[in-house]
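Today's session is about reading a structure prediction critically. Students often jump straight to the picture, but the first step is always the sequence itself: look for stretches that repeat, for charged clusters, for runs of hydrophobic residues. Only then move on to the predicted structure, which in these notes is written as discrete structure tokens rather than atom positions. Here is the chain we will use throughout the hour.
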Amino acid sequence: MAQDYLKEKEVKKKSAVKVVWLLVVLGVAFIAVLGKFAFSGNLNVFNGLPDSDDAYTVAKEYIGPTVLSSNVDFSDSEYKFAKKSDSVYVIKSFYTTKDNSGDKVKTNFTITLKYNGGHAESLKNWTMLNLDQD
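Below is the predicted structure for this chain, in token form.
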């Protein structure tokens, strides 16, 4: 009986030492992550959802390559903005281009974008769901 007790005590001691080492490793990892944020100066990990200006800026990046003209002027002050859900945005606006004769051509568009998270300014963090131009 005394040997069983000593064996159990030895097994528990080994388990406790393993747990202590695991806690030390996790503590060091936690301190390393805290240090990374402290020294990077970027403590704002979550910026929240994008605002209308962020969504409109990304919309222009999606629409730009679809326009045949190289001279495109977006109406930065006259866009309409709506949210379908927390991360789905609808932008209605227009852009003007010049045709071959130099006349301005106005094109209305409606674009639906889904924000996937991350920095709102980055195009890779958005998905275009729909684009209508007329």
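Discussion point for the tutorial: Helices lie at 2-40, 52-63.
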